[in-house]
């Protein structure tokens, strides 16, 4: 289409989702020949890799959030809209947002994933997951409320259940959560209570496979387990959770079922793709995998729809290794940059080779002073790995708005451990009376069945 | 009562409320002859004077919160309990908390005040006040959502209402809120939007009396008004709010009523005492004033109950000047310290003279670089006053846990304006569809009736 002056109107790219994938696409599309509309239901980009530090009272949500408008305010070709995309019409080339049709020339869907309970959605009430700021605040509330309730509990068994923290899932998030809770219980909080000794706290990390951090090299898994145990975490592998109800967790080890009492159960075990994936797959005849991720072409587009791309945690890209790429920030970032480059080159009449993920390695942090880093050609553990982890995170945090101040502030918060971040807040504060109540439904903890950890 | 060894058990002081009054009492009672139990329904002390900075997206809640357990963890004689006191028995000398009786020898009630709508409680829905962290998060959500909705609004009148912010009440909180919103609209956010020009925002500060900051000297009120106007705030005095409903604010100026559209109305106009005040007054035969504050004796105790004290915003102490002392932090702090000293001296058989408030002055800040300070013998305005304001706040923030780090972090956050703190969060996020909806109930803005400001 040509306008009055005989020049083409700018190519309009709509990006749905302001996570790593969407944001890096938008930043890379900064060009006067392209108009970009970025739609997100939140007004900020969240640095999810550090969300566990909000959940455990070290950082504030604002420390790991960047307003999308600020990050993109120098990209004058980019408009940010706060809203939720309810539908997509791939034939007429528009997306529906709050009753309004927004037309696109190219569409990038990057709405990510949320946690999944493998069909046991009723567990969510007892075992919250960690994907949003609200999730983190809720975890923080539960963790610190458990210590508060234990301080007031006179029944020994109930107190033991209150001081038992179970993290389900031994991936990076689970490892990071378990390590941070152990540091709280055995270090940071130890002077704070008068009736309880927080060193009696039990922190359990449950993993179904035979080792934590399954994607890492086995020797790193072993190192991570050792570091966790040094912090006081009980690492329990080859263990499946088969029930979570009230304060009772049921697990299965081989053929044996066991039960134990635990007030605080945190979920770090599985994810499923955002529902927009299924919607676009149905409309375009694309396939989805078991987790709801959309199977994409080698250039990250959808079959038959070369102007629709799916990237990040929502995409199932298996062209490189035969297995889908993992749902981590570097994959999303590289996919976003690839799609941006591809669109720019297409506008010049060029095509670029298929997407190739360059795996720079994996890393997970264990407490304040240890980590494991798997770079493929090199493996790091302990304090050196932790320093490496810190540098990488600081580097990518800074990229958001290219400001030294954010980096310094964050490092400062990290080292000084913003003490106020332990505050218990929320609209639905538990009635303080409940904290001290001794409800009838509270099941007896059968210590004979307690896992020996 | 004597115990087996023939020595007296320690005197037990129960403090209800961990605000400035309760916390300063507890800190001053650090003595091995006294056991202290501090009860609060939150697990943190909140530095309320800076709450407006959370509401306007400069600081995080954690920056102005200190966990009570951390602040008091060196006071080994002090136990902190999270819970709500539901009843007090002044004859049997115990307080009820969650079904449990806690006996006391001395009792200090310092549960403060919340905002009051002068009987118009239905206004709370449209015009939230600012007393808790949750209040601040809600204000922040409303302020930033208004800009987001304006960006998507195509109807000019509705957009004008979305970009109209009304602060009700010209005391320090109102002045601080209005100044901070003006700085957001005319400075910080001005590059962030594509459809709206945030400089078209209108920020109105409504005050019933003939000047803002009525407790200050008139020349400081004039200076404050000038500073606010320089920032772009419309200061409207001698104006009463008579209606707030939906997006319509009704005001009365003299005999004339006017209406105008404003999506965001913030309440900084009045407070009423916490309900525990009325409860204890009824049980002890004490009187309360119109705001529900308990009228106390010259030593801050209740008539006929020399071991029960009421301090801080909950107390009506008029023995010094004939008028009640204002509900500000320095009054609560000095009262707490007085009561602690009084109890300690009584245990030694001594009495001390009646409480005397030493008024060090009043201060209010207007935006990032101006303030007014009234020290009685000296009045400061502008940047010098702002520096003074900063020093005072830093000093008292630091007192909480005597750590340099908190001070540096806070000053750092203040100067760099933690950008992430602009995040819109909350369990009950407004459905993004609503943001863009054009509800039928939306009343037409009658510009003929708009106040000429």
Tally the helices of chain A: what do you get? 12
Percent helix of chain A, as a range, is 25-40%
According to CATH, the fold-level topology of the largest domain in chain A is FAD/NAD(P)-binding domain
Average per-residue pLDDT of chain A, rounded, comes to 87
Question: Any guess at the CATH architecture of the largest domain in chain A?
Answer: 3-Layer(bba) Sandwich
Task: Profile the largest sheet of chain A.
Answer: 6 strands, mixed
CATH classification, class level of the largest domain in chain A:
Alpha Beta
Question: In what range is the share of β-strand residues of chain A?
Answer: 15-25%
Strand order of the largest sheet of chain A: 5-2-1-9-21-20
- Classification by helices and strands of chain A: alpha/beta
Largest interface: A-B, 67 and 67 residues
Question: How many domains make up the 3D coordinates of chain A?
Answer: 2
Task: Point out poorly predicted stretches of chain A.
Answer: 427-453
Evaluate the radius of gyration of chain A: 23 Å
Oligomer: homodimer
Apparent shape of chain A: elongated
Can you describe what's shown?
2 copies of one chain form a homodimer. Chain A has 453 residues and is an alpha/beta fold. Chain A has 2 domains: 11-41 and 83-115 and 272-347, 3-Layer(bba) Sandwich (FAD/NAD(P)-binding domain), CATH 3.50.50.60; 121-269 and 361-416, 3-Layer(bba) Sandwich (FAD/NAD(P)-binding domain). The first copy, chain A, contains 12 helices and 25 strands. In chain A, the strands form 8 sheets. In chain A, strands 5-2-1-9-21-20 form a 6-stranded mixed sheet, with helices on both faces. A 4-stranded parallel sheet of chain A has the order 13-12-11-17. In chain A, α4 (133-152) runs antiparallel to α5. The first copy, chain A, starts with 10 loop residues before the first strand and ends in a 17-residue tail after the last helix. The relative contact order of chain A is 0.15.
């Amino acid at each position: 289409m040509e306008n009055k002056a005989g020049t083409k109107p700018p190519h309009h790219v709509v990006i749905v989702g302001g996570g790593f994938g969407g944001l890096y696409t938008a930043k890379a599309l900064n060009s006067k020949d392209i108009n970009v509309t970025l739609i997100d239901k939140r007004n900020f980009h969240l640095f999810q890799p550090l969300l566990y530090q909000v959940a455990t009272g070290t950082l504030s949500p604002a420390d790991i959030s960047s307003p999308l408008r600020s990050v993109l305010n120098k990209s004058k070709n980019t408009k940010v809209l706060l809203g939720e995309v309810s539908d997509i019409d791939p034939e007429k080339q528009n997306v529906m947002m709050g009753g309004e049709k927004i037309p696109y020339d190219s569409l990038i869907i990057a709405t990510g994933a949320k946690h999944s309970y493998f069909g046991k959605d009723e567990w969510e009430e007892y075992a919250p997951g960690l994907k949003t700021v609200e999730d983190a605040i809720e975890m923080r509330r539960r963790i610190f409320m458990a210590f508060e309730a234990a301080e007031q509990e006179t029944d020994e068994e109930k107190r033991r259940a209150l001081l038992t923290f179970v993290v389900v899932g031994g991936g990076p998030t689970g490892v990071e959560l378990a390590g941070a809770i152990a540091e709280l219980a055995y270090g940071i909080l130890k002077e704070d209570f008068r009736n309880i000794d927080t060193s009696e706290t039990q922190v359990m990390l449950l993993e179904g496979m035979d080792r934590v951090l399954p994607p890492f090299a086995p020797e790193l898994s072993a190192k991570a387990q050792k570091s966790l145990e040094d912090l006081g975490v009980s690492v329990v592998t080859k263990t499946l959770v088969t029930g979570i109800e009230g304060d009772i967790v049921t697990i299965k080890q081989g053929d044996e079922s066991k039960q134990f009492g635990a007030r605080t159960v945190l979920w770090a075990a599985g994810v499923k793709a955002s529902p927009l994936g299924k919607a676009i797959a149905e409309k375009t005849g694309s396939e989805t995998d078991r987790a709801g991720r959309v199977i994409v072409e080698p250039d990250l587009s959808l079959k038959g729809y070369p102007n629709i791309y799916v990237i990040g945690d929502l995409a199932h890209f298996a062209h490189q290794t035969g297995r889908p790429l993992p749902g981590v920030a570097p994959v999303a970032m590289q996919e976003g940059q690839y799609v941006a480059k591809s669109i720019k080159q297409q506008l010049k009449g060029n095509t670029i080779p298929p997407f190739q993920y360059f795996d720079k390695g994996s890393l997970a942090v264990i407490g304040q002073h240890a980590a494991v880093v798997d770079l493929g050609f090199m493996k790091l553990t302990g304090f050196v790995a932790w320093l490496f982890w810190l540098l990488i995170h600081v580097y990518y945090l800074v990229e958001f708005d290219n400001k030294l101040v954010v980096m310094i502030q964050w490092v400062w918060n990290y080292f000084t451990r913003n003490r106020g971040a332990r505050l218990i807040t929320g609209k639905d504060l538990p009635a303080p009376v409940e904290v001290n109540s001794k409800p009838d439904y509270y099941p007896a903890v059968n210590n004979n069945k307690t896992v020996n950890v």
